[in-house]
Amino acid sequence: MLESKDQFKAAYKQRFMSLLSKTINEATLVDKYVVLASLLREEISTKWVSTNDYYLKQGKRQVYYFSLEFLVGQFLELNLQYLDAEDTCREGLADLGISLQDLIECEPDAGLGNGGLGRLAACFLDSLASLGYPGHGCGIRYKYGLFKQQVVNGYQVELPDNWLRQSNPWEIRKPDKAVVVKMNGNVRSELDANGRLTYIHENYLPVLAVPYDMPILGSHNDTVNTLRLWSAESVDDSFDFASFSRGDYTSAVSGKYSVEAISEVLYPDDSNYTNRLLRLKQQYFFVSAGLQSIVRRFRLKQKDLTLLPDFIVIHINDTHPALAVPELMRILIDDEGFGWDEAWDITTRIIAYTNHTILPEALETWPIDIFRELMPRIYMIVEEINRRFVADLHQRYPGQDEKIGRMSVIADGVVKMANLAVVGSFSVNGVAAVHSELLRNVVMKDLYEVFPWKFNNKTNGITHRRWMIKSNPDMTEAITDVIGDSWIKNPCDLSLLKEHAGDPAMHQKLKQIKRLDKERLAGYIKKHNDIDIDPDSIFDVQVKRIHAYKRQLLNAIHIHYLYNRLLEDPGMDFYPHTFIFAGKAAPSYYFAKTIIKYINELAQVIDNDVRVRDKLKIVFLENYNVGLAELIFPASDVSEQISTASKEASGTSNMKFMLNGAITLGTDDGANIEIRQLVGDDNFVLFGLSVDEVLDYYKNGGYNSRAIYESDPRVRQVLDQITGGSFFPYVPREDFASISRALLDYNDEFFVLKDFDSYVTAQQKINRLYQQPDVWGSMSMMNIAMAGHFSADNTIEQYANEIWKLEKCHPTPLG
After folding, report:
1. Within a 13 Å sphere around the CA of 321, how many CA atoms are in the beta-carbon half?
2. Would you state the pLDDT for residue 811?
3. Do 76 and 107 touch, CB atoms closer than 8 A?
4. Average pLDDT for residues 252-266, to the nearest whole number?
5. Second label for 758, Cα 20 to 30 Å away, from 101, 106, 466, 735?
6. Pseudo-torsion of CA 356, 358, 362, 364, nearest 10°?
7. Maximum CA pair distance of the chain?
8. Residues in contact with 653: Cβ distance below 8 Å, sequence separation at least 6, in sequence order
9. Cβ of 143: how many Cβ atoms within 10 Å?
10. Using CA of residue 159, residue 165, residue 169, residue 173, what is the dihedral sign?
11. What does each C-alpha distance from 190 to 201, 205, 395, 752 come to in angstroms?
12. Rounded CA separation 377/374 (Å)
């Protein structure tokens, strides 16, 4: 079908008739996209079926990656590239009067994630399939994703992300694989005929978990793994006919909607009890459904479940899927008849855990009453896990109740999910060297003392296939012309570029490519924001979730300071800058939303001032997603990685910027440290407090943010303008009062003012370096050259060899 242009055209026209019962001339753009996607899925399905058949018959050890997010982006263009079908389809469609690019742009981003956690999971799935490893994803099929972000009058407004409105042609609904997840109710115990104590879950709410499978195609191989996403449905349709007949239509379908709400939205606003409960429902829903499905499939080949750890690894991506520990215990004990010790041995040899944060609010805890009411049997199991673990701790640490309390799974009225994940797993990894060190020595120091063999580091990675080959084809071609194409399969071979880092001709070539990428982004900004930006200006970019510790506020305050400086000294040495922001704030995170408002108001002040607007611009790009990121990274000159040292576990946007030749302006935090070590101090612009300095301030005090406000006129001027009223005459004073309170009254928790002077100096360095083309070109090339180290392929090889113990497979398509 894809072997020749004529075969493709014939198949494409025939598919219109069979799928849509219409001709191409009658079709909408969406119709044309859906038909092309269905043809590709058919081509992929042959490999998909043979891959699954091979895994089952050969009894291959497989990993199942449980994650609440999979930020997979768009599939059409990537699948065309992986099938070597892009040229054939482009030419065939052109003969039919259809632009392939129009169809690519028609595809919506899948609303299955938000930030780095989900993008990492998607990169890992891509690398698993492309390297030929048996590995699958397990998550939730969110109907409306996180939300669609709009900026209205400078404020973030959340709208539903109805990404499934035009259907998803890549997924297959599999109702025959559905399972029931039991929630609420009560549990009673009784002795069975053999005198064994059994537990019966009664009066529960049954939730039907229906899987939707999406193929994850490997690059230029025959491996197709599976992303299984679960949708919550009512078991009996829950339609109350009596209520409907009385005209009470809401009550008639309330039961159905309350169940379906489980898979409606990613991260429902948890500022109220109902939505907090919904988050816990989501976590149990997809964990239970996924584990039931895995055990059922395992039984197709093996009857002896004691062999489960020989063939299955469950990897939980952060604490959201930590309920896998007690749920697998429940399945083994209640459904399969194992005793506690044997079930615990199996569970703790199957589950591995990645920790992604050291922020206390992200190390999830759940109040006992919520946990117990929703999952009565699971709570009983967690309680027993805790009882046995604490008993062991008392023997090891007699009289050290405070230490034991810190390690307990249940303590102070809450269930501690990170502790549960550590206790119930065989591997615990951080996602950057410094993050893993902080886990061992600070955050989980006590647990590390008990389980030192579990802890290890696996620095995050990104897939170069999407973030260079797909999104930056001109750069891909230029690099290949210089060092050959071995880096495409072995991204660490990008290091061959180091030999050419001083080549002025190569600098000029990369500068030309960067200029074209900047023109494309400028075109997008003009179309969507109606702002003209100069492609010859420095594109200084910070794109990530809006959060106080990520310090978009520091970036904005510095721009505000620059504005003041340019007014005071119009002739100062300053190369034109365009500062670009993108990212979403959680709906209930009002401080983060205030930062978005501040950025947008500052942008308006600057843009309205003819004295500076040709030198300084701010752009806030709304609704940041994978598709937009593919435009931004190739066009960026400066990568803002300015989180408070010790707060960012790793980061992955830093790696994407680096791969595309941007220079990192960053703190010694997360993977920034490893980037700087690889590229060298001369090719990285460092500023700010170190991790040790930050931790010392937190532990011993000694920081006074108000003293900086009093002593630094630059800081004082900006903060007075933010809260004074005259600088932003159309913004109520109380709108920005929280900024002043956070920085002064609450002593600047994330050291924005402490790092301000160092940040100003670093930005001045960027300004000087950019005006030295050969120096900047060499820095850019060194960053690209060392980016292969952060390939997800490299990271997955470490997971596969050191944690999962997987073997590469080479399935043959069924003929």
Report:
1. 31
2. 78
3. yes
4. 83
5. 735
6. 90
7. 91
8. 116, 543, 544, 629, 633, 639, 641
9. 20
10. positive
11. 11, 21, 32, 60
12. 9
pLDDT at 501 over 50: yes
- CA-based torsion, 325, 328, 330, 332: positive or negative: negative
d(CA 377, CA 145): 30
- Estimate to the nearest angstrom the gap between the alpha carbon of 677 and the chain centroid: 25
- CB-side neighbour CA atoms (13 Å) of 62: 25
Give the model confidence (pLDDT) of 365-411 as tens digits: 999 999 999 999 999 999 999 999 999 999 999 999 999 999 999 99
Q: Which residues are catalytic?
A: 356, 544-545, 550, 652, 656
What is the sign of the dihedral through the CA atoms of 753, 754, 755 and 761? positive
| Burial of 505: CB neighbours in 10 Å, binned 0-12, 13-18, 19+ | exposed
Averaged pLDDT, 430-446 = 96
Query: Which long-range contacts link 562-570 to residues 24+ away (Cβ below 8 Å)?
Result: 562/616, 562/763, 563/602, 563/605, 563/606, 563/609, 563/612, 563/616, 564/714, 564/717, 564/718, 564/721, 566/611, 566/612, 566/615, 566/616, 567/611, 567/612, 570/611
Supply angle C-alpha 381, 385, 391, rounded to 5.
140
Q: Quote the percentage of the chain above a pLDDT of 70.
A: 97
Closest CA to 21 of 42, 7, 35: 35
Query: Average pLDDT, whole number, for the chain?
Result: 94
pTM of the model: 0.96
Supply the pLDDT for residue 252: 46
pLDDT digits (tens, 9 = 90+) for 288-328: 999 999 999 998 888 899 999 999 999 999 999 999 999 99
Average pLDDT rounded to a whole number, residues 79-100: 96
Interstrand relation of 538-543 and 577-582 (parallel, antiparallel or unpaired):
parallel
Query: Contact 12/96 with Cβ under 8 angstroms?
Result: yes
Q: Are 705 and 727 in contact (CB under 8 A)?
A: no
Task: Confirm if 455 and 439 have CB atoms less than 8 A apart.
Answer: yes
Which pair of tokens denotes residue 497?
A: 């570029």
Residues 468, 791: contact at Cβ < 8 Å? no
Taking phi over 0 as left and psi of -120 to 50 as alpha, with beta for the rest, 330 belongs to alpha
